[in-house]
Predict the 3D structure of the following.
Amino acid sequence: MALFIVFEGIEGCGKTTQAKRLFNYLTAQGFNTYLTKEPGGTDLGMKIRDLLLSHHTETLPPIAELLLYEADRSIHIHNVIKPFLHKDYIVISDRFYYSTIAYQHFGRGLSYDLITLLNTATTESLKPDITFLLDIPVEEAFKRLNRQRDRIESESISFHQKVREGFLTIAKQDKNIAIIDATQSPDDVFNQVLQALTPLFHKI
């Protein structure tokens, strides 16, 4: 049986590191595993990712930003996620639809109902088997960003605090979200990921 695993969190939380680590671990255990990301999990998606994360002289309105994320997701679901799940792979995604709610609703202030409608349409109601929310204070997370910041990372601290609060609000409403303290060492975070996954392995 297939599994769909998602890592979520604010910039600098360590989700990309943990997603890669889980992919390497499961692959070494002999599982058919595919690692992907949003935005940019497809060739077309990489072009959308560049539009979303690059700095521009023109303003990218919040509604246009939302629609670009949803376009990327539709392509991602159709061309990558569902095909691999149909082949009984474990699919690990660095971000999925909860990021859209956290960033575009809680961060940008766009309509929750609109975002939910678009998420449902683009995912065709596909939901992760488990989502890991790596939670960390914004100030601590941004100390880890020792590179040139992209358009989203360059938003204000208050914006990212709203996004973090949004993720935590979402997690209270969904029993399939496991919150992990991302201020811990990478090894401790990964051990908690494995512990949370143990009950799901009977599905594989």
